[in-house]
Amino acid sequence: MDGDKDIGSADFTAQGKVIKDAEAKGFNPGLIVLLVVGGLLLTFLIGNYVLYSYAQKSLPPRKKKPLSKKKMKKEKLKQGVSAPGE
């Protein structure tokens, strides 16, 4: 049994030398793609959060649109206050 070799776990070269685990070198390409895409997504989300927080601090609050006289009259009638001129 000394001469028996497990052919499934080793590759033989033309000279008959055994190369063990020839495919174990390097990274899995799927893992590299996953890490790159995950890193880009994480960078995008963190960048958006930083820009949002900066904008909240530096930009003034938005102005409300002025109500028209017609809408003001309706609101006052809803509240029970008589509109002027009636």
From TrEMBL:
GO terms for cellular component: nucleus. Signal peptide: none annotated. It is found in: Nucleus. Keywords: DNA-binding, Membrane, Nucleus, Repressor, Transcription, Transcription regulation, Transmembrane, Transmembrane helix. Residues 60-86 are annotated as: Disordered. It comes from the Eukaryota. Coiled coil: none annotated. The keyword rRNA processing does not apply. The chain crosses the membrane at residues 31-55. GO terms for molecular function: DNA binding. One of its GO terms (biological process) is regulation of DNA-templated transcription. Residues 60-76 have a biased composition (Basic residues). Pfam families: S1FA. Belongs to the S1FA transcription factor family. PANTHER family: DNA-BINDING PROTEIN S1FA1-RELATED, DNA-BINDING PROTEIN S1FA2. DNA-binding protein that specifically recognizes a negative element (S1F) within the RPS1 promoter. This is DNA-binding protein S1FA2. It comes from Acer yangbiense.
